[in-house]
Specification:
Layout: E1 4-10, E2 13-20, E3 29-35, H1 43-54, E4 58-61, H2 74-86, H3 88-103, E5 108-118, H4 120-130, E6 137-141, E7 158-164, H5 172-184, E8 189-194, E9 207-208, E10 213-214, H6 217-234
Parallel strand pairs: 3-4, 3-5, 5-6, 6-7, 7-8
Antiparallel strand pairs: 1-2, 2-4, 9-10
Helix pairs in contact: 3-4
Amino acid sequence: MPGTFLEYNDGHTTFEAYVALPTTEASKRPAVLVSHAWAGRSAFECAKADKLAALGYVGVAIDTYGKGVFGNTAAENSALMMPLVQDRALLRRRLLAGLAAAKGIPMVDTARIGAIGFCFGGMCVLDLARSGADLSGVVSFHGLFTPATIPNHPIKAKVLALHGHDDPMVPPAAVLALQQELTAAGADWQLHAYGNTSHAFTNPAANDAANGMQYNAATARRAWRTMEDFLAEVFA
């Protein structure tokens, strides 16, 4: 069943999510937000929403840049991402707007919502957890571990971070800092580090080993299966 697009707003800015519904049940189902990488909500994230729907969840690929706003080059992507990395209050508002839109989907069981994210989106789902939102769990795939610059709220979501050990964007000191942050917050957290694995390991288009961005099919498969088990647990 093809997905549909859902418009929603934060202030005067309109955003557009991609929604994929499961076909096997008409009853209320858990929802999983998909937070995009630095280029914006692309076919990659929409495909992940479709895969989540095939697992029986409502997949919602949210948007943090604005309807029709996408980057096509590394420079454009950075220009879209960095203002939100630097203004975490604005980013938090946009993420919570996406969460509110997902809660308004009739099939969604609002007591069972999770979020997954890739690269920049991995940082976004960690920020959703830091916001204190009522989420069952969040999963960061090769996410940025950049700490928030605004006060955090008690973390209610269980946290799973799936990290490439050789990711140059997340050095060991950043990994340790996230572990210490989540422990101090009393969060239920896991961090899986995959050896011989770089940044962007889930993205088949990533082919820049010299700069630490490389698809790894084996790690991508292992990480997705780990996510499946995690979601089954937090939604039980």
